Amino acid sequence: MSDVQFAEIETPSHGALSLEYRWIHRERTDAPLLVFLHEGLGSIAMWKDWPQQLCDAGGYRGLVFSRNGYGRSTPRPKDEKWPVDFMHRQAREVLPAFLDAVGVGTEQADRVWLVGHSDGGSIALLFSAAFPDRLAGAVVIAPHLFVEDVSVESIAKTKTVYETTDLRVKLGRYHDDVDSAFWGWNDIWLNPAFRDWNLVGAVATISKPLLAIQGEDDEYGTMAQMDSIAAHVPHAKVVKLPDCGHSPHRDAPAPLGEAIVAFIGAQVQRQAA
């Protein structure tokens, strides 16, 4: 993508990082700003056209970036293992530093919406809990609040597919260092120590508007994830999409987009009233 830029940041856990990013309709300075947080094997390129389509549909400004270890951003150092709290570090160190670096400060907080998918959804939940003064609200798509057997089983199958098929070649189109991206994600999710990872306590403190969406046929998580959000964040709106797997932006883009545009629109109207 010719319009990709790089932000240089410094973090306590990861040191100096270079993160690729791109703007969508940057000129819409008064519109809601959607910050897209990709899945555990995602990147700017892996979103394909969906962020653009969503911003076009809702009249939004968009900001898409690849976390360190993914896409063209700084890769994971060779043989480094992600720690159990890697998503906490992304939410509390990397994301705030990135937003600062690209000029999205607290003065824009009333227009900032996080849109996170899978691991990115979990990071959005953690950021929402930690920095309520930096955003208007969040949309989380198939987020993880805790580790389920189905998650581990599906990720173990993906490991086999990566080792025995052309999946590595396909993913290599989206990541400069595909092994860095894949093994960073796969190793931590299959680490027995990660089975105790849990965000329920953190999400219970979320005060800003929250839309949580998941496909009923999600191969990486059950509806227990949505039910937990509903139980611990009573003001959240929960949407369960039928005939939809782990990636609603691919499996059910129309109902997903409609739900997001309606939710953000209602919140903007309420804010303006």
From TrEMBL:
Ranges of residues in domain AB hydrolase-1: 34-256
Organism (species): Pandoraea aquatica
Keyword 4Fe-4S: no
CC terms in the record's Gene Ontology section: membrane
InterPro entries, sorted: AB_hydrolase_1 (IPR000073), AB_hydrolase_fold (IPR029058), AB_hydrolase_sf (IPR050266)
Pfam families for this protein: Abhydrolase_6
The entry's keywords: Hydrolase
Protein name, per record: Alpha/beta hydrolase
Record Gene3D superfamilies: alpha/beta hydrolase
MF term (GO), any: hydrolase activity
Domain of life (superkingdom): Bacteria
